[in-house]
Amino acid sequence: MLSSASIDLAGEPIEGLQIMGLLESRGLDFDEVFVLDVNEGTLPSGDAPPTFLPLDLRRRWDLPGRSDRDKLYGSHLIRLLHTARTSHWVHLDDQLNDAEPSRFIRIVDAWAQRDVPNIHVLHQMISTRSPGSAPETPGLEWNEDMHKAWHTLIHERGISPSAVNKLLSCPRQFRYRYLLRLGEPPEIEETMKASTQGSIAHAVMEKVLKEALGRDLRKEDLKFEAKALSKLVSEAFFDKQRERMRYPKSATDSGENHLLLGQLTAVVRKWLQDEIEEIKAKGKGPTVIAVEQPLEAEIELNKPLKGGSKLKILGNADRVEHPAGRPKDLRIIDYKSGTVEKGDVRLKDQDWEEKLREGKKDKAVQLLIYAVMAAQAHPEASEILTGIRPGKSKSKGILHLEKKVGKNWENWGARDSFEPFVDWLEALLHETESSQWVVHNPDAKYCDFCLGVE
């Protein structure tokens, strides 16, 4: 950290503490000297001299090489001992990071062993104290205001997939975000965050798919020249920025934002190309019903929660459609501009409840809640399929929510198969409501407020 730091020196240059480079010390005498970074690679540097001449040619004509420069370093270093009563040579001793003491230290050790006059060497190991463990985040006791906010959320406002996932990953963070409604801490966004990139990609796909609403999606709807697609992504970017006022007009002309926008264009191109290949394989495209459609449902609870006997859930479906050749089935597709793999949306039949509880299957939780809402909104559908179209994945196409039955993976789409999940969700909410404390999960990532002192 200190390698990039600089110190401003002011005052009389020949009195008090002097900070200088090795070459600056030539011809100067000091009573006490501190030499820092006496490690191989620094003293001497170990770098080859800047030259195009090969080593054998330099030796043939007695031209100076690396060894000569190393000797020059040694000469300057030993010169510091000329009149110094005490000299402190500091070096890092860390074998894991290849930090080796300089050869010059071994030379001075050899002098001391040969009883060279006035040379006495004392080796001393100095180390920093290891940091202690982080202070334990205290739990928060449920109070009347928290219970009121909780009842408003689950009975009136509605609980979303992101809220359920936050409750699973860290109950304390859930309390800050969804009960106190603190939101995310404000920050200056110099470059596009992942969330910004995702909203832009969604806006592009919404514009593309709106042209195909109510009919089968065709290959012609998805074919764009490179320039036309780049223009479409840029327009979506600036549409979003007019809403947020975050970037100037030239924000994507150069620099990291320019690269990120190009990367985002590649993600959208991949989505479109995957769609085209699926239409070719099936001979026809899906029938698009809606894009960016709000979803919500009210679930009658087996055991009432305090304040009501119904649970309200809500979300927003990126795309609702009938799969190609399956007009009686319904499919909800969510677009993710980041990396998603099959394992993120697969659950084994025997331990899926435990895996959801661990808070590491957030995408599966999202798809299950979408399926429950879609099943209530579309009672005519035979099966409710849910899936994610990833921006980056080792697998091609849509990653459907699947469960493992026996040795085979099957789509989790039958209407009655979602009832166990609803029971699991109800049990989670009852457990949360009946608990006395809201605790922090020490394994949770990206907790914005949990480590604050109450």
- Strand order within the widest beta sheet: 4-5-6-8-9
- Strand coverage percent: 15-25%
Question: Would you report the number of β strands?
Answer: 12
Which consecutive residue ranges, at least 5 long each, have pLDDT under 50? none
Distance between the termini: 32 Å
Give a verbal description of the structure.
- With 454 residues, the protein is an alpha/beta fold.
- The protein folds into three domains: 98 residues, no CATH class; 95 residues, no CATH class; 148 residues, no CATH class.
- The protein contains twelve helices and twelve strands.
- The protein has a five-stranded mixed β-sheet, with helices on both faces. It has a three-stranded mixed β-sheet with strand order 7-10-11, with no helix packed on it. Strands 1-2 form a two-stranded parallel sheet.
- Helix 5 runs antiparallel to helix 11 and helix 7 packs across helix 9.
- The chain is elongated and about 100 Å long.
Features:
alpha/beta; 12 helices; 454 residues; 3 domains; elongated; single chain; 3-stranded mixed beta sheet; 5-stranded mixed beta sheet; 36% helix; 12 strands
Short account of what is shown:
With 454 residues, this protein is an alpha/beta fold. 36% of the residues lie in helices and 17% in strands.
